Structures are given as C-alpha cells and as structure tokens.
C-alpha cells in the first residue's frame, strides 16, 4: 500500500501513458487500491485487459501463504480467494477484457464467483479463458461443473482451457462456434459430450486431452481439426479411440502406464506428423492409418523395435521422410529400409543383450543421420546412403567405442559433422577427420582428463583438409580444470606455422577456454583464417545431444578470465573480424 501512496505523490505530473504503464505492472490487489486514492485513477485500472487471478495477484506478493494443511482452514482460504475474485469483477470498470486466467483450486462451492467471472468476461469480449483448478492438496474438492447458459449465444471465445472440473452432460456447446483451441486437463470425458463438442465447435483446430478420465470409448470426428494432443499420464484405461479428421495434420500421444488408450482407427489422409511416447505399442496403434505420415517420433518404447515397430512402419508408411527413435529398447538386429527417408535419429536406445548387434540402414535419399548410444554393447552400423551430408555422432567416452566411426569416415561427401568424443580417442579419430574435404560445418565436443602434452593443432589440420569449411565450433570439458590452468599458465605459447585457411568465417570456442592451448588455437585462427568474421569464446558448455536437444551448462570453466583472454588475443584481431568474449 505504501508503494501505491508513493505513486500518488510522485506521479501527478506524469503523462497518462507512463501512469498506464506503471499500473500494468501492479498486482490486481494493488490495482484495486488505486481507486480509493484518486478519483482520477478510478477508471485507470480498467485498462488492464488480461486478468490473471492467482495467489500472487490477489494477495500481497511478498506474503503469499502456503496452502493450509487442515480442511477448515483450506476451505476458509478458498472462500477468501473466491470473494476477492468476485469483488474485483464487480468493481472492474473496464470496457474490454482480452483474457481471463484463474489458477487456484476452486470447486463447486464457488460457482457463484466463477459464473459471474466468465459471464462478465464474455460480455466484454474475452477471447481466452483458462480455469486451472488443479488440486495439489490431500483434500477432496467437489469439482466445478461447467454448464453455462450464457454460452448459448455467440461470443468471441477462441481459446478455452479447463482443468479439474466437470462438463455437464446437458452442456450446450452451440455458443462455442468460434473456438479454435480447447484443452481439457483432468476432466472426465464421455462420448456423448465429445460428440456434441465436435459437432458444435465447427472451427476447432487444436484439441488437447491431458490426463483425462475416459468413461467410455471415444470417437473424435471433426472436419476442421488440425492438431490433436492426447496425454494419458498415469491414468489407467482400456478404452479405444477412433479419429476421423480429414484435415488433421499432427497427432501427439503419450502415456506413463501399461494400460492406456488404444488408437484403433485413424482416418486422416492429410496426417503428416505422428509422435508416440509410451512403454508399449503392440496392438495400440493402427499403422495403416499412418500411411501418409512423413514425420514420426517414437519415445520410450520398451517392446522390441524391430518386431513391433519397424516391421510395420516402413512397409505401411511409405511416405516417411523423418524418423526418430528415442530411448526405445533394441532387442535384436534392426533393418531399416526407406525409399523416401531423409532424416533418421537413433538416440539413447539401450540394447539389453550381451552380444553385438547390427543396424542396417538402406535409404538412398537419406541426408541426415544422428546416433547416440549409452549401452556397453554398441551396434555395428551399416549405412547405404549415398546422399548423406549431415551427421551427428556420439562416439562414446571409451577408446574401444571408436571402431564404428569408420562407417562415417567413408562418407567423403559429408558437409555437416557434429561429434561428441572422449579425449583418449583423439589420436585415432583425427586420422579419419582429415578425410572430409567437403565439410562446411564442424562441431566437436571433447570431454576427458587434461593432458599437458596435448594441444589442439590437429583441429587446424582438419580445417586445412576441408577448404570449404565456414563454421567451426569446439566445446571442451576438462576434468580438474584448475590443474590445467595452473600448469599451462607457466609455459610459453607454441607456434604452428603451416596453417592457412581462405574459407573459414565463424568460430565458437566453449567450455574450458582459459587454457593456453585453446588460446594458441584461437590465435592461429585469427592470424591465418583470412576471411574470418567472428570468433566467440564462452565459458559455457554448449553442445548437441541429439533429437534437437542441446546441453547449455553455464558452469564450464572455473578460471574464466575475460581480461586474460583479451590481453592474449587483442593484437591478433584485424578490422574485418569481431572478437566476442562471453
């Protein structure tokens, strides 16, 4: 309250636009208080068009209490929240409301406040409503029943998110004709409700069922639906679902249980993307309904990939271009044959047996391949992919893991290579890395114990062997970095007089970049890469781990000194190049 009084005393001469901006940063509780301090400001807080009702907004920000641990106190706290919400809406002088969001465990006992909130919001043009009544307590709350007679008429609502409430069977969805996005979270779902919803929400494009209880088998029939997201969570169910949506473009499905919703029939001839995360898939998915899919992701499957997925996938889904297997079990040899396959990712897929196994890939149009494994037994990978130009390869930390890289080393037309390797493997791998004469981008992540007799001049050899190289990224994770810095700070810089490159433009050095050997590398690049535009040095570990994921560790270098690096390199920078030290 003192802050609001201070605002009154200091803002009499402020322009209206500045006062409006200040008001937009106040909590709803303090926003209401301004009307008691100045008649001039009574209408000002009505310009707040996005109304967010939660503990921080309806109670003092610095004194937000934890939810009470006894039922009487909790119920009293609920009533206090609902009363404040209702009071705000009764006094709200605004002409237009853009969005309403309630994030607090309200229930059926607070219908009076919720109904008035939504009625006034819709009358003032709200296009987004979120009722998030998540109950994270041990108390049983009678769910709010969603049955609003004022939805019978047309309204501007395009986004509706309901959590932990109940949709009445008598609900009339005719007022939701403009709805584009619907999210049902922890809501009981019946077929008759779903049928009425799909029939009346004629413009529905995005539909999410998140941890809902399915009381019956379901059929989703929609002529306009574009994106469907079903997350069963830990809800155990044996229900079936049919999906009939001629314009549907993507399906995302996930479950944390063995018994979950079965997708028995998919009729969506425009479906192009399918994402599936669950421990089992046998008799769950109708692969014949995926015949036009171009992008597919499988995550966490514990059944045999070859038997239950691959044998059906590439024989029925003939348009596949992009396939990802992430954290799926491999129980036998795999054979992947895809005539149109362009991008393939096999990431963190464990192998349970104790003998070697094979992954045979025959894909004439394959242009991108990613592999990362974390099992003791690594596969023997055979690649028949003459158009392959981009590879991410996690070699693994052990010396014995490098044998498989010979498969990649034979791909002389490779243009984009990202590799994660251990320091003991450098002596062998650097012999293969100089084979790639067509490289335009090289990203290396090196981890392992520091060795004082090792430098990074071998990277200069790779660059010289790749005259088309334009981007070079190196991330270094040293063990015992303080030792490497103390040892190297005492020696002189070494020279490598043979290096010159006329194509390299961008260089990034991440992680342990304070050591003298990294500064030596940066110095040679600055002096002898004639077209270099930018070189960046950062203490963060920034490296790729597959399937579109990056590791962004802010604690990369314990001795990172911006001034030390700048002093070493400032005289090497020419007028055409920018040195950035983060």
From TrEMBL:
F-box domain residues: 13-43
Pfam families: F-box, LRR_At1g61320_AtMIF1
InterPro entries, sorted: At1g61320/At1g61330-like, F-box-like_dom_sf, F-box_dom, LRR_At1g61320_AtMIF1, LRR_dom_sf
Domain At1g61320/AtMIF1 LRR per the UniProt entry, residue ranges: 93-268, 310-567
Domain of life: Eukaryota
Protein's recorded name: F-box domain-containing protein
Organism the protein comes from: Vicia faba (Broad bean)
